[in-house]
């Protein structure tokens, strides 16, 4: 019996070792699978091209599995409200992130202003050098839908500031979002439009930037979705977008950078 005991213990030890190895392998596989799941970034249509440029410049980008889902801000907001599995939401306004925050659907203190949008008057059929081009204009004008698109709201406010809204509103062609409006003008389906300045800059086109005091700030905010299982990575992406180098890049792409040390302060101005 004394001679059998070491052999028995050896077999038990071997079985335990194999079991531990199998457990370790299973744990590793689960970890790898979790890491392989993409971080889903819901981004407003106007900002998607700029976000892709920023992420292309991100250090060690090959280490991260990121998925960008682009649509109108209102559409993404409704999807998140109904449980869409997004991790990070980059809105074209401050309203929708704030509503999600109020509904307790966002990570606490994650709401930040990441960019300020600008609008511009542009035509693909004729040079436009001044806003006076609108004064006696009687044709169709393309803008994003003021009811749902932040850039459309800004366009309406600018036209109201210029006392042109009553005259022009009957000749409007409204896009679902600012991307559709840009395509309407670029395709020459509509001779003149108010688009995002970033669209002109990134496509090397020239228009007339509308002064920012003609409309309320287009405050674009981001939030981390509370149900995210990749909060650490979402925070990393958020911090990267807000860092000085990224903000300088956004300025070169036609946005106004966030200059406040507390980004939320910008939204309150």
How would you characterize the overall build of this protein?
The chain has 269 residues and is of the alpha/beta class. It has two domains: 36-117 and 217-267, 3-Layer(aba) Sandwich (D-Maltodextrin-Binding Protein, domain 2); 119-209, D-Maltodextrin-Binding Protein, domain 2 (3-Layer(aba) Sandwich). It contains eleven helices and ten strands. It has a five-stranded mixed sheet. A five-stranded mixed sheet has the order 7-6-8-5-9. Strand 1, helix 2 (48-56) and strand 2 (66-71) form a beta-alpha-beta unit. The longest helix is centred in the N-terminal third of the chain and has 33 residues, at 4-36. The protein is globular.
Can you give me a brief rundown of this structure?
With 269 residues, the chain is an alpha/beta fold. It has eleven helices and ten strands. The strands form two sheets. Strands 2-1-3-10-4 form a five-stranded mixed β-sheet.
């Amino acid at each position: 019996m004394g001679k059998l005991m070491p052999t028995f213990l050896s077999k038990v030890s071997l079985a335990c070792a194999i079991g531990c190895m199998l457990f370790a392998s299973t744990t590793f596989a689960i970890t790898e699978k979790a890491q392989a799941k993409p971080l889903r970034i819901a981004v407003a249509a106007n900002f998607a091209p700029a976000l892709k440029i920023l992420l292309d410049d991100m250090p060690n980008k090959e280490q991260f599995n990121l998925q960008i889902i682009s649509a109108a801000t209102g559409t993404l907001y409704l999807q998140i409200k109904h449980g869409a599995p997004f991790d990070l939401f980059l809105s074209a306004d401050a309203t929708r992130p704030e509503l999600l925050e109020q509904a307790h659907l966002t990570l606490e203190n994650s709401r930040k202003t990441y960019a300020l949008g600008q609008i511009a008057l542009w035509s693909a059929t004729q040079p436009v050098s001044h806003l006076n081009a609108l004064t006696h204009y009687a044709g169709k004008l393309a803008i994003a839908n003021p009811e749902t698109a932040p850039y459309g709201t800004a366009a309406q406010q600018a036209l109201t500031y210029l006392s042109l809204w009553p005259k022009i509103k009957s000749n409007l062609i409204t896009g679902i979002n600012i991307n559709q409006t840009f395509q309407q003008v670029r395709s020459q389906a509509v001779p003149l439009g108010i688009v995002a300045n970033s669209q002109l800059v990134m496509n090397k086109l020239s228009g007339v930037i509308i002064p920012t005091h003609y409309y309320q700030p287009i405050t674009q905010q981001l939030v981390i979705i509370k149900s995210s299982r990749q909060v650490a990575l979402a925070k990393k992406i958020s911090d990267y977008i807000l860092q000085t180098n990224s903000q300088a890049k956004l300025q070169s792409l036609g946005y106004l950078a966030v200059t406040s040390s507390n980004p939320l302060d910008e939204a309150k101005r």
